[in-house]
Every structure is written in C-alpha cells, then in structure tokens.
C-alpha cells in the first residue's frame, strides 16, 4: 500500500483526483492548511506536525490542529506530540530515523514508550530495520525516505512494511489500483 506524501499544491491537486483514501501532508504553512484539507476533504489526512511552518512543537499545537482541522492523524518525531494526539483520539505515526545500531535501540525504546498506532522507519530502504522494529514492537511499520523506485516499494512491503510513504507521483500512479 502506498501512502502518498504531498509537499506542493500540484501534488495535492493530483491526489485529490485519485482513488487514494489516505495521505500525508508535509512541508506546508499553517495558513495553507485549511485550503489543503478542503481540497482533500474525501481523504483521511495525516498531518506531519513537525513540518508545519508557523507551529511550535508543543502539545498546544496538537490541540489546535485537532480541534480546528480534525485530521485523521498526526505524524511526529516527538513522543510528547504523539502522546497528546493519542489523548485527543486521532491516529498517530511516530517517525524514527535509524542511522545506526544505537539509533535502532533508542527508537525501539521510544516506540514502546509513546505507543503510536504506526511507526514510520526512515530510511525506508532499510529492510533489516523494518523487520527488526516490527518484530520487537509489534507495531505496523510504514517505510519512508529514499524510496523512489518501484522495486524499493515492493521490497519494503515484502520486508513487512504495512505501507510505504513516498512523494513520488509516478509511484502513486503505479500502485493506485493496488490500494
């Protein structure tokens, strides 16, 4: 399953016309969020809170976004944001960067601590890490980062990823009928 990640209005327009039911909003300004969500009103939208310009990384930002925009879910690298979003009854994706064995160990402890609904592992091409995090935490894993080839999507899914996030529109189109 592909979870389209959008960064600009051109991609938002294309996604709004697709059959995808879920998506991720990256890199936008708080002032544009209402328009973006209006264009994607028939989608279950995850908002990557850390990448929304004009917001702080505090729990109050989560409350504001959830109350004002009512997203399907929140993505963050911060445990306090994930915990607050869970309290507000929205789906959560904890994003972790696994760059070495120390980061892997730390990430597993953080995953257990904040109890997100999903875990996004970056880079998503790290098949060994996808398998290990899934086995040790029991959480559905989303592979993201550096995935730009069809074979990489297939490999991440074969390695046990629940979904793959990508901003590559060509991959959205290739996998759209499989969602």
Automatic annotation (TrEMBL):
GO BP terms: glycerol metabolic process; positive regulation of DNA-templated transcription
SUPFAM superfamilies linked to this entry: GlpP-like
Organism: Macrococcus brunensis
Protein name, entry field: Glycerol uptake operon antiterminator regulatory protein
UniProt-recorded Gene Ontology molecular function terms: RNA binding; transcription antitermination factor activity, RNA binding
Keyword hit for Ion transport: no
Function in brief: Regulates expression of the glpD operon. In the presence of glycerol 3-phosphate (G3P) causes antitermination of transcription of glpD at the inverted repeat of the leader region to enhance its transcription. Binds and stabilizes glpD leader mRNA.
Superkingdom as given in the UniProt entry: Bacteria
Coiled coil: none
Keywords: Glycerol metabolism, RNA-binding, Transcription, Transcription regulation
Pfam families (UniProt xref): G3P_antiterm
């Amino acid at each position: 399953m592909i979870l389209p990640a959008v960064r600009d209005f051109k991609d938002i327009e294309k996604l709004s016309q697709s059959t995808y039911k879920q998506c991720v909003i990256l890199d936008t300004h708080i002032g544009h969020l209402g328009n973006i969500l209006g264009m994607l009103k028939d989608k279950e939208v995850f908002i990557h809170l850390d990448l929304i310009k004009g917001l702080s990384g505090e729990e109050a930002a989560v409350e504001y976004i959830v109350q004002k925009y009512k997203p399907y879910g929140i993505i963050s690298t911060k445990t306090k944001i994930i915990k607050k979003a869970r309290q507000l009854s929205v789906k959560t994706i904890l994003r972790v960067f696994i760059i070495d064995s120390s980061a892997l160990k730390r990430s597993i402890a953080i995953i257990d601590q904040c109890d997100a609904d999903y875990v996004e592992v970056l880079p998503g091409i790290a098949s060994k890490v996808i398998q290990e995090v899934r086995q040790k935490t029991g959480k559905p894993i989303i592979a993201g980062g550096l995935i730009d080839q069809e074979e990489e999507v297939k490999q991440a899914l074969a390695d046990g990823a629940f979904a793959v996030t990508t901003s590559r529109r060509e991959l959205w189109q290739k996998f759209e009928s499989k969602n």
